[in-house]
Design brief:
The chain is mainly alpha-helical. The protein contains two helices and no strands. The chain crosses the membrane at residues 72-90.
Amino acid sequence: MDSWGALTMLIKRQEAAKNRKKKLKFDLDKRKKNLQSNSVNGLEFKKVSESELKEIKSQIKSKSKRDNIKNLTINLLIFLICSLVLYYLVTQIKTNNLT
């Protein structure tokens, strides 16, 4: 193969690589556009009036308050039980050391 043949082979390889890259980019853009158009159609929500929206917000807030109170009481009970167990252990150790 002479030098011109090698040069034309190199140019053909580069063009083929460029074409592959262009085709991959086109396919990716097509898929991306397809996903975007499908996701917009899939996220259509029903229209909610202002009064319904206020009612939903109040329900969410009341549920959140109940959950917070429940979590607080559980944490306080756990803390109280741990404190009592620790106090009991400390008093038992002191009484055993004294005798």
